[in-house]
């Protein structure tokens, strides 16, 4: 099945799951409409009750709610609600004997439980079991918090079976910590940035689970505002780390430069909107819209676009990403879509969130292991190739670099692996160095230049001695022209530092060809060399110690031309 078919099937599955989970269903019984005179004298006349057809606009200045507890059940002691920002809740509890008890609970005094993102607000005690409970909530900013309001006779983290649930969450946190250990071991063998970003992503998931499950409150009681802020920012950091992990995890030749930059900007955007939601929630929820989630939707669209493009290009690594992230993507889509649907209770799929993390941690860890083994095989293969090219036929005996014959032999393979920038360098007035200081010093200069060229990351460049004082760099990856120019300028500094017998600055001129995507492979080594040599001659004629480069252009008919620039 092709990449587009896999992506289409994944999106269809996600939409089907959203439709099933988002079916309207009462999460708890709706409280009855107010039928008696309010016990709170200053309750507003337009009291809003949960589960009404016309939900409140957020942030709400004041919401008045009335509950009538079941007289046959245990008397309520707490008002429970999902974690969300509010200013305070004023309670009036009318006992069955007519007595009234009042209290006011600011958000800072709410009890942060360890039963999910749930706050417990203690009710005032009347002299008799309550017949009616009225609450006035000021500054509520979250639809899900309003819809989750209900009375309870006990805190949810004191119910039977809660300890077992905490144990399962602790096991999940331990499972998430294991990939970090493997990443540390992988890093010792292979210094690739995707390993670091995978460790960072997993390190964000651990506190996210601890915060969203509430288990962190078993270790130390968090202030509700701090709990909310930490949850939002950790969520944003996890998204940013995921984007950067994907950006470095996908094979270099399967990810375009623009896509790579877009992923980096999207990571910064995820952190920025999370900070806005933390610091200015009023600004992020005008007209009741959850702008934090809406602002993150383009990030998810970009992620799927990059994944789909990489699949179409035959990426092996991205398949693990797609499978691992489907459950968590469904969680996000369910939560944001139900918040946007009028009359549909906001769904908080916490158990699916845990399942999604287990799936992501398992599948992505397998993907990291597979990528590690692939890169190690590539490295071992490269070493074997280097050993095979170590003879005098394909390697320069003076500098140890590959020679022209070796490059010509490997040229089609290098082009297929994404090498697309052809930089030809020549030392300026090198004959004067040989004539003045002798060939032994000249040879030392050549070896020093070779060391500078070989110092570039070997996975993304190939250094060649073409003959005499002429060298070639064949590059791929990010900003190849900038890297080549930096290497050219580094030659003078390195030679001056290491070859102390000469009293002059050794400079180099360079001619460089860029081969964009789409240019046919029929353009061979000899043609590219001839063009680069022409540019090198122009650099010499323009005064030496400079670069000239051009970028090949593909015409519709399949031919190529070149646009030159200094």
TrEMBL record:
The keyword Kinase does not apply. Keywords: Membrane, Signal, Transmembrane, Transmembrane helix. Gene3D superfamilies: 3.30.70.270. InterPro entries: 7TMR_DISM_rcpt_extracell_dom1 (IPR011623), Diguanylate_Cyclase (IPR050469), GGDEF_dom (IPR000160), Nucleotide_cyclase (IPR029787), Rev_trsase/Diguanyl_cyclase (IPR043128). Residues 1-27 form the signal peptide. It is an enzyme of class 2 (transferase). It catalyses: 2 GTP = 3',3'-c-di-GMP + 2 diphosphate. The chain crosses the membrane at residues 166-187, 194-215, 227-250, 262-281, 287-308, 320-340, 352-373. Residues 418-552 form the GGDEF domain. Its EC number is 2.7.7.65. NCBIfam families: GGDEF. This is diguanylate cyclase. It comes from Pelagerythrobacter marinus. The lineage of its organism: Bacteria, Pseudomonadati, Pseudomonadota, Alphaproteobacteria, Sphingomonadales.
């Amino acid at each position: 099945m092709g990449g587009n078919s896999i992506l289409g099937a994944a999106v269809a599955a996600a939409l089907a799951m959203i439709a099933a989970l988002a079916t309207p269903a009462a999460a708890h019984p709706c409280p009855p409409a107010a039928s008696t005179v309010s016990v709170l004298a200053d309750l507003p006349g337009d009291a809003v009750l949960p589960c009404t057809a016309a939900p409140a606009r957020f942030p709400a200045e004041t919401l008045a709610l009335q509950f009538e507890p079941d007289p046959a059940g245990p008397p309520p002691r707490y008002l429970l609600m999902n974690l969300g920002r509010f200013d305070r809740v004023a309670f009036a509890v009318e006992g069955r004997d007519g007595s009234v008890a009042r209290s006011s609970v600011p958000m800072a005094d709410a009890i942060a439980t360890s039963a999910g993102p749930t706050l417990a607000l203690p009710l005032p005690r009347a002299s008799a079991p309550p017949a009616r409970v009225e609450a006035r909530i000021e500054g509520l900013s979250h639809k899900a918090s309003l819809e989750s309001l209900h009375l309870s006779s006990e805190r949810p983290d004191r119910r039977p079976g809660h300890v077992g649930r905490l144990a399962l969450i602790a096991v999940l946190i331990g499972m998430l910590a294991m990939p970090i250990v493997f990443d540390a071991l992988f890093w010792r063998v292979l210094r690739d940035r995707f390993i670091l970003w995978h460790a960072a992503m997993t390190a964000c998931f651990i506190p996210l689970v601890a915060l969203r499950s509430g288990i962190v409150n078993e270790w130390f009681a968090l202030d509700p505002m701090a709990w909310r802020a930490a949850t939002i920012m950790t969520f944003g950091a996890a998204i940013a780390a995921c984007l950067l992990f994907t950006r470095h995890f996908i094979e270099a030749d399967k990810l375009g430069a623009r896509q790579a930059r877009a992923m980096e900007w999207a990571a910064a955007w995820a952190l920025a909107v999370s900070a806005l939601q933390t610091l200015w929630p009023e600004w992020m929820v005008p007209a009741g819209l959850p702008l934090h989630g809406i602002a993150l939707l383009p990030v998810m669209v970009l992620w799927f676009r990059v994944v789909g493009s990489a699949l179409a290009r035959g990426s092996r690594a991205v398949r693990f990403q797609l499978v691992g992230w489907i459950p968590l993507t469904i969680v996000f889509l369910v939560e944001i879509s139900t918040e946007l649907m009028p009359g549909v209770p906001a769904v908080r799929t916490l158990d699916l969130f845990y399942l999604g993390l287990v799936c992501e941690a398992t599948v992505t860890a397998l993907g990291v292991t597979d990528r590690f083994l692939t890169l190690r095989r590539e490295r071992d293969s490269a070493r074997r190739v280097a050993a095979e090219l170590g003879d005098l036929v394909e390697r320069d005996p003076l500098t140890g670099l590959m020679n022209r014959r070796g490059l010509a032999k490997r040229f089609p393979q290098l082009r297929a692996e994404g090498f697309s920038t052809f930089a030809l360098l020549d030392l300026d007035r090198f004959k004067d160095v040989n004539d003045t200081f002798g060939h032994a010093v000249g040879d030392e200069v050549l070896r020093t230049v070779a060391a500078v060229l070989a110092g570039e990351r070997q996975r993304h460049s190939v250094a060649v001695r073409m003959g005499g004082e002429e060298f070639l760099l064949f590059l791929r990856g990010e900003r190849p022209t900038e890297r080549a120019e930096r290497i050219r300028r580094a030659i003078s500094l390195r030679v001056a530092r290491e070859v102390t017998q000469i009293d002059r600055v050794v400079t180099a001129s360079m001619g460089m060809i860029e081969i964009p995507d789409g240019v046919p492979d029929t353009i061979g080594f000899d043609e590219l060399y001839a063009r680069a040599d022409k540019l090198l001659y122009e650099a010499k004629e323009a005064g030496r110690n400079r670069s000239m480069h051009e970028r090949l252009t593909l015409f519709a008919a399949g031919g190529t031309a070149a646009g030159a620039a200094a």
